[in-house]
Amino acid sequence: MSIVVVGSVAFDTLTTPKEHRARIQGGAAYHFAQSARFFTDVKVIGVVGNDFTAEHEATLTKRGIDTTGIEHADGLSFHWTGEYKGAMSEAITLNTELNVFGSFDPKVPESYKSSDYLFLANIEPTLQLRVRQQFPNAKLVAGDTMNYWIADHKANLLKTIAELDVLVINDGEARLLTGEHNLVTAAKKVMEMGPKSLVIKHGEYGATAFFCDRSFPGAMNTVPFRAPALPIEEVVDPTGAGDMFAGGFFGYIASQPELTPRVFRTALFYGGVMGSFAVEKFGSERVQELMREEIEARFKLFREISHLDLDAA
Amino acid sequence: MSIVVVGSVAFDTLTTPKEHRARIQGGAAYHFAQSARFFTDVKVIGVVGNDFTAEHEATLTKRGIDTTGIEHADGLSFHWTGEYKGAMSEAITLNTELNVFGSFDPKVPESYKSSDYLFLANIEPTLQLRVRQQFPNAKLVAGDTMNYWIADHKANLLKTIAELDVLVINDGEARLLTGEHNLVTAAKKVMEMGPKSLVIKHGEYGATAFFCDRSFPGAMNTVPFRAPALPIEEVVDPTGAGDMFAGGFFGYIASQPELTPRVFRTALFYGGVMGSFAVEKFGSERVQELMREEIEARFKLFREISHLDLDAA
After folding, report:
1. Does B297 contact A at CB distance below 8 Å?
2. Does any domain span residue B312?
3. What residues of chain B score a pLDDT lower than 70?
4. Which residues form the Carbohydrate kinase PfkB domain (chains A, B) (predicted)?
5. What is the pLDDT of residues A282-304, one digit of tens each?
6. B206: chain A residues, CB-CB within 8 Å
7. Does residue A174 form part of some domain?
8. Which residue, A252, B108, B153, B201, is the most exposed by fewest CB within 10 angstroms?
9. B86, closest residue in chain A (CA to CA)
10. Is residue A187 part of a domain?
């Protein structure tokens, strides 16, 4: 089944302790799509400027990603400049040039409207909600957000969160959203906001899914589920890893005939797998060159490093 | 098989955001023993003062823990005063009164010498080494340490670490010991120091075991293994949770006929299980009242929250 994703399609200028890259392709919807496309058909809604050439678009289309919903506006594309220091656990924003993204008004192409799966990648929450309302019959709607919207646009964000089946955020965002240190307490408060489930990403420590509603098909009772991350020695660039986690997670779900607890859990493992590839090179470089067999081999490795029930003695 | 543990048997005065407790029983060897005794026979080496009464000793002996090796010296017992703030992720030491522990010279009773398993709980590293040398034929030797010894007694600590089969430390200690942010890089550096394996505890995120030596019977190749922690809403007191993790981990290993990769992995799960009980009440209160069935039920829960291969759809 196909996924529609709405979010940024952008250029990133990145500095890590070891390297610098200017204006490489990025954006939340871009990274999500590059990851989810291994699992299912992906249709992108976004906006780009005159600097987004046919060559840039081809990095999506040649991988089967539908770009019908990417609007070409007059001006420059969204451009984020960021830096990572030390353990690279946090991105420092040096500059955000919204450009054509500043007046983005997402339009859903006719050919997208039959999609059953909708992912609202990190953008301004009223835009997320406007797209969400155009998919009243979606089977599953998931979304992400970021500190900026939590801190300064909370009222609007809460309206979007209430319409989600799955909210996918990280530890810091969960704490900021609720004012709670403890992640279980934070998770409970988030779920009172309306989503049926919550996936909290812990970076190098994996992710935890929380459920409040036993009737949610991905939930097994209300017990949480923890998926591991792969211990990685050389993180080249964490940009987009969270979006690629979401792409693997939601892509796997959309590829399955039915959402069951087992599918939801397996999807979290695929999320971790895609996130682990994402950090190995800059931006989406590693994932663009990835082979499906590598994904399956790493999925196997994720089980191997976390499961007791192995054939070994 | 029995375990000998050497370390502090002490009193703790603790302040958490919600509560205060004065002079409750604690110490690394005490907590370790209270946890490991569910799995195997435990023999303690330590020193206490005149304030450690028969009633205090009975909290060990009535649970089958051998206290022959606890020396009664003239003076007061080791007394640690600590506080936890906010997320309670770090203990703030307010006062350390070594008392009789300051001149502790561990003596190994004859009846302890046939034990095959030795755990060097957190004490001054030359004392750890002196005890270790009295068990030249131990099947498995594991140990812990803390920031203080890493920062100020590193040369001595390295001599002890070189003699360990398993070093059990936390994220912060691994980083301090190696000067490396990245835990995989840190793990590699630690293993160059001589231990056959390394367990890094991540607190609420679980633990990771690293192996450098394929011939180590607990290793499956050199792939790491990650065990989860239980998401816990109300952490009452984290004091001793690390020692109880070690007690569950090492106790389970000692209870098994042979160290295999499967035993090592399962032991990490039991470590997490015991750590998860430890934080539910002050000091060892929760673990002292624990029933074996509760341990097995929680072990099952640990599998349920982390394994894909369940009977559920």
Report:
1. no
2. no
3. 310-313
4. 35-284
5. 999 999 999 999 999 999 999 99
6. 205-206, 226
7. yes
8. B153
9. A181
10. yes
